[in-house]
Amino acid sequence: MKVTFTSALAVGIIIAAMAIFGTGCGGGSAHNNSVPASAPATSGSNVQPITVSSGPEKNYANGVFTSVTVCVPASSTCQTIDNVLVDTGSYGLRLLSSAGGGPLTLSLPQQNGPSGSPVGECAAFVSGFTWGPIRSADIQIAGETASNIPVQVIDPTFSTVPSACANSGVPEDDSLQTLAANGILGVGPFISDCGSACAQTGALNPGLYYECPSGGCHVISESVSQQVQNPVASFPTDNNGVIIELPAVTAPVGNLSGSMIFGIGTQSNNGLGSAQLFSVDSIGEFSTTYKNNSYPAFVDSGSNAVFFLDASSSGLTVCSDNSGFYCPSAQANLSAQTISGSTTASINFSVVSADTLFATPANFVFPTLAGPNPGMFDWGLPFFFGRNVFTAIETKSTPKGAGPFWAY
Q: Whole-model pTM?
């Protein structure tokens, strides 16, 4: 779901436990839009394969994963990490350390604060937080490289979790079991994960970044360039956005392959074509109208369902065994409108009972999964099935104007 500042992060579902985890909210099923998706691109220096699958723990519903190569800056000492969640609702790379059961074993350079002690981050999301040091790495994805950028290493052994973070009311997602992914690749419409809010001093600083001497951690002002960075924005080329391309699917399946394309209008395989543009505000939101009510909305591949509030007028009662999802007695066929200025698109989507969807253990791709989310419309991964979704990064030029915007 959404972070308290500008981003959104992933939501996982551990099917065996039928429980929402994590850092996000979810997605619905949306296949009908005025612009049909083209087949996913499969080749090119800016094309990275992605897969909707069960993830490293074999229990993730509607999780879209890829691999990322991380290197010690300016060296050939590298490690490729698979099963990294692709998230258009957050910003920057976060990798689970071996201390949390993840695969990362590289020793990456530590970022230090004003007093020379290590810097860590409490990345606080609605459903959980990640804690660990800020380190520097070269990031290689497809044929693209972001050089020497800050990343977060999720590490439960890094210093003592600050009380403001530990007592935030949400769990710490610092293990493979709780994160259900080897990392999170945030490729949303902003460059850094907090921006000017964390760069300021005083009470208005949200308190994400800490310097951690041996006596304990304290909040610091973290300059924008030192914050965890969206790696796409640091590519030498193809750095103005990403396209998530996933084929249409109308019923649950085991897995689904697609592509993540870097750049918008920079090569022959990433043009906007007739896609409609939806500009977003300073916190990454536009509007969605549903049943004559307007809601702030965002597009989030890291959310595993369409999350929105329905007061049961469509029969969308929540599941008795999991209040995070809807369990209507019959398929509900719904419609909403996404709006930005004078641009409007009608989105038709369907909702099927989560209990029914999860009844077949071999399936992990669910185009009709949805759940409640009061006050906000979260177009999660099912929105991406069957359409090419463009995420343009703030201040970066595209053939149809500068970001931030979404287009589809």
A: 0.91
